[in-house]
Amino acid sequence: MTLPRPHRDDLLIAAGGLAIGLLMWSFGLHTQTDRPIDARWATLVPLLVMAAMEALRRTLPQTALTIGTLALVADQFTYGSLVTALMFTDVVYAAVVYGSPASARRVPWSTGLITIGVTIGFLVWWQNAAALVIGLITGMVSFLPAVTGAVVRNHRETAEAARLRAEQTALLAEMDRSQAVVAERARMARELHDMVANHLSAIAIHSTAALSLDEAATTRQALTVIRENSVEGLAEMRRLIGLLRDSSGDAEPAAAPTLAGLEALIAQARTNGRSSGLAFTLVDTREEDGARLPAPVELAAYRIVQESLTNALKHASAGAVGVFLGRDARSLTVRVTSPIGDRPGPRAPGSGAGLVGMRERVALLGGEFEAGPVPDGNGSKTWQVRAVLPAEERTPEA
């Protein structure tokens, strides 16, 4: 197995400790005067081993502590070196700071018990106060570095946890911002499509008719419709742009359309669809009980009718286009029917975004939406758009 490469700072610490230890040894500075091993060179063995463990203090902290402990014990049988003991304190500290979580918890308890055991043992053996000094030195060499390492590690882990929480908070904030941007862009896309598509569809159909039919009256009528829809579409665009601009507070936002404007909307559809043989009717069976619908519900219902009329103008064959409104205590029902089949004359192309926008509007309010062909009772089919909107605002189900 390949040993991990020692950290550069650990190598510098080991080299510095070894150099100071050799210098003190050369001057004969020792911690003891009478030991079983009288050879002065024997003091260098624990010193060299401890210096080697200092080089491994970060990469192999548990191994460094185990071998360093044996080296410190061996040093007590020689003349001893103060540098060996000081390097051991750093090895204990590193074992707590850089070791495994289990080791970081175990070392302070172990060194504390060793300190207590040594103090009691020497008190029993010597039976004088000098044993307390031995216990104090043992605690300073082992327990105090372990406690210091535990405090430092705890602060580092707390700081790392705070950093991770800050990163997660920033990530969640960015996700919320991105979702808000996407939702706002989708809302703007629906509003832009619903506000302008009706006018542009009428312009496309009547301009095609003016180009394909060489009749002065038809051309004049088509140009009149084109001009009206161009002016109204431009006004709608200006209102939308005004809402998107930063307001200084002087201008009031334009009021959102409501169901009270359906008569005008259907009157405009009659003008735009007259050349295509389309007849538009409105049947409103709502009870006049004085209860107002929430503004988002009225806006959604208005836009659904508007988009359905636009789709009828684009795709419906000649016949009756019906708009039906009904309300009970809990919901508002909007239903638009239009004939299916081929029709003479020009048609405007469709993108499919209208149905998507209507479905999104209903989903945001927690309602029900369906669109497709249904039997008309005469053996044929009509295209029906049906939306059931809650009479009160509520959060859509996830």
Account of the protein in words:
The chain is α+β, with helices and mostly antiparallel strands and 398 residues long. The chain folds into 2 domains: 8-170, no CATH class; 259-398, Heat Shock Protein 90 (2-Layer Sandwich), CATH 3.30.565. The chain is 62% helix and 11% strand. The chain has 10 helices and 5 strands. It has a 5-stranded mixed β-sheet. The protein starts with 7 loop residues before the first helix and ends in an 8-residue tail after the last strand. The relative contact order is 0.06.
- The SS-based structural class is alpha+beta
**Helix content percent band:** 55-70%
Major sheet details = 5 strands, mixed
Number of helices: 10
Shape designation? rod-shaped
User: How many beta-strand segments?
Assistant: 5
The run of helices and strands is HHHHHHHHEHEEHEE
Low-confidence stretches: 248-253
The overall pLDDT, averaged over residues, is 82
Q: In what order do the strands lie side by side in the largest sheet?
A: 1-2-3-5-4
Beta percentage is 5-15%
Distance between the termini: 53 Å
Any idea what the radius of gyration is?
44 Å
**How many structural units, i.e. domains?**
2
Give a quick precis of the structure:
62% of the residues lie in helices and 11% in strands. The chain is an alpha+beta fold and 398 residues long.
Structural features:
398 residues, 2 domains, 5-stranded mixed beta sheet, 10 helices, rod-shaped
